[in-house]
Design goal:
Elements (H helix, E strand, L loop, with lengths): L5 H70 L9
C-alpha cells in the first residue's frame, strides 16, 4: 500500500474537483432541459385553453343560430306534409 503523502492527497483532491465541475455542468444542462420541458408543457396548456375558449364561442354562436331558426320556423306559415 502506497504511503499517503501531501502530494498524493493533492492529486486526489484535484481529481475530485474536476469530477465535481463536470457534475455541476451536467446538472446545469439537466436543469435547462427541465425548464424547456416545463415551458413546452405550459405552452401546450395555453393552446388547449385557447381551443376550449374558441369551442365555447362557436357553441354559443350555434345556439343563437338555432334559436333564430326555430323562431323563424314558428313565424312561417306551416304547410302540411305532402308525400310525393
Amino acid at each position: 500500500m502506497p504511503e499517503v503523502t501531501n502530494e498524493l492527497m493533492y492529486e486526489f483532491l484535484k481529481k475530485i474537483h474536476s469530477r465535481m465541475d463536470r457534475l455541476e455542468n451536467g446538472l446545469g444542462e439537466v436543469k435547462h432541459e427541465i425548464v424547456a420541458i416545463r415551458l413546452q408543457a405550459l405552452s401546450t396548456q395555453t393552446d388547449i385553453k385557447n381551443i376550449y375558449a374558441i369551442t365555447g364561442r362557436i357553441d354559443q354562436r350555434l345556439e343563437r343560430i338555432e334559436q333564430r331558426l326555430e323562431l323563424r320556423e314558428l313565424a312561417e306559415a306551416q304547410r302540411p306534409y305532402e308525400p310525393k
